[in-house]
Amino acid sequence: MVHALDEIRRVLTADGIMIDLRPVSGRWPIEVISASGVRGTGDLQDLDPCVRDDEAANLSMARAEQQGWFIRQAEDFFSFIYSWDTPSEMEEWIDTEWSDSILLDDESKQATRSVWASADADARVQIRAKMLITRWRVIKDK
Q: pTM for the full model?
């Protein structure tokens, strides 16, 4: 990733801006939402590859900052909602898209199915992913 950051720095104009936008691990909550409210049913568990990817990205950005390539101008976290009509749709998504980085344990799976089945007809299942957004300004000799 450091090589990619060096290439980004090379092609940006002086005082150019790079946005680092990515999900970060952190036991994302599972919720059932309906007209009657939001009920938490468990948390996704981060697998080692997910945690290692976050650590590698953070180390690469720190190294680029130490090299004097970029200056961090602003940083914040926000939630990004993934939403499905049914628990089975959520489970299928996790199996096909996140199986190498996220684990849905049986207890959370059962709790989500149970709460969804007893909720209003408009109930949906959602995962509240934690996102990081950072604004970096490139540093170049003018």
A: 0.87
Terminal-to-terminal C-alpha distance of the chain: 25
* Residues 26-78: tens digit of each pLDDT: 999 999 999 989 999 999 999 998 899 999 999 999 999 999 999 999 999 99
Instruction: Determine contact, residues 81/32, Cβ cutoff 8 Å.
Output: no
In DSSP terms, which residues pair with 74 in a beta bridge? 135
In the predicted model, what is the mean pLDDT of the chain?
94
Q: Could you say which DSSP state residue 14 is in?
A: T
List, in sequence order, every residue forming a beta bridge with 103; answer none if it has no partner: 45
Range of the domain at 78: 2-138
Q: Give the chain's radius of gyration (CA, Å).
A: 19
> Into how many domains does the chain fold?
1
Report how far Cα 66 is from the mean position of its chain's Cα atoms: 25
Structural tokens at position 103: 């684990």
